[in-house]
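If your schedule permits, I should be very grateful for your opinion on a structural question. Thank you for your consideration; the sequence and its tokens are set out here:

===
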Amino acid sequence: MADKLNITLGAAHLNHGIRPESKDEQSLVAKYCEKLNIPLITALRDVPAAATREGKGLEETARILRYEFLEHSAEEFKASLVSLGHNTDDQAETVLHHIIRGSGLRGLMGIPAKRGIFIRPILCCKGEELVRFLKNRKIKYATDKSNMENNYLRNKIRNTLLPMLRNEFNPNIDNTLVRLGNNISEWWEATGKRIENILEEYEDNNNFNIPLDKLDGLGDFEIYLLIDIALKTHLGIFQDIEKCHFDAAKALLHSGQSGKSINFPHGITISLEQTSLRLTKKSANKSYSPPEITLPSTGKYNLPSWNMSVKIEQLPFNEDLSFLSSEDEIYMASVDFPIKIRGRKPGDRINPFGMKGRKKLSDIMIDKKVPLYKRDQIPIIEDKKGIIWVPGVATDEKTRILKKTKQITRIKLIRDN
């Protein structure tokens, strides 16, 4: 069909290093590709060793390594699509497998006909049809004998449960299971896509910061669906997330308690901010703590750890200058050098403009509705007497410019794009 479809074909075969006959299967594929003049990429992966090293099951490890190999092969070929060989039998087994395992609705969709670069054009064909097709054309094929062993749940479903259901309950059970998967897929197109669009709009490097007003119209099940899609589709987490986790996330959202968070398996944190629901991975959720920097006097200094530079100068008093302060620029009564720029610390306090007494910086940030994930990214600026300025959050009362002030200090932050 390549000429009719105006496509160029390549083939990729991964030897999983599990069975002795794998070499013969690879040779069979290589000879057929040579006969058809189709370029072939092959590779060997020691799946058992990788499974032991990663502490994962053999089947899961094989799947992960197989898809990685296929993605790399597609890059090598500059291919836009990768065609896989899943068929109707695989679909029925998958849906039944997910029912037994207690899957949610999305799991009942089974295997998608297309996901990303992967397509499954023979998902509508039964295994016996494919074997008949090969035999009629005298094309040699290999059978994985390990599929007949009942040491895996999927094999038990294939070899024991499905035959029993066909013989004793429903001769068309395969079609029934496939139809169930198709019905759920249609539901997904109608409902799930809307949730997916929300996630795509507010995703940033596999983290999500979703405005609460975008969640107002969602019911409990749609909240579950949103978190489920984020975990599986975007973060690749398919295991160890149970109903209790989703219930905790819904309770967090309904509580309305800003600043609270819950931890999911695999380093996932879900936190409720003043105006948003935030979902982060552990690798992207580490505290941002650049080194403390001491600036001895006036001048311009580069602060690469903060992705900015700072300019400090002292000016003669001018009453009008006090009105020019902004989030990144401050005019204040003269400070006591040296100035330090650092990250926040537990117990930090400041006496904000117009208030009597010192107040915890953490409380001020809550009052100012500073999102939790941003609080460690704001520089704390202090002189010998303590904190004088937290840009965009608070300025200490002791820096207030008065009529008796003779000299003022200007601090300007220039942020890198």
In short: The longest strand covers residues 308-316. Residues 184 and 374 are 39 Å apart (CA to CA). The chain has three domains: 2-178, 202-284, 316-410.
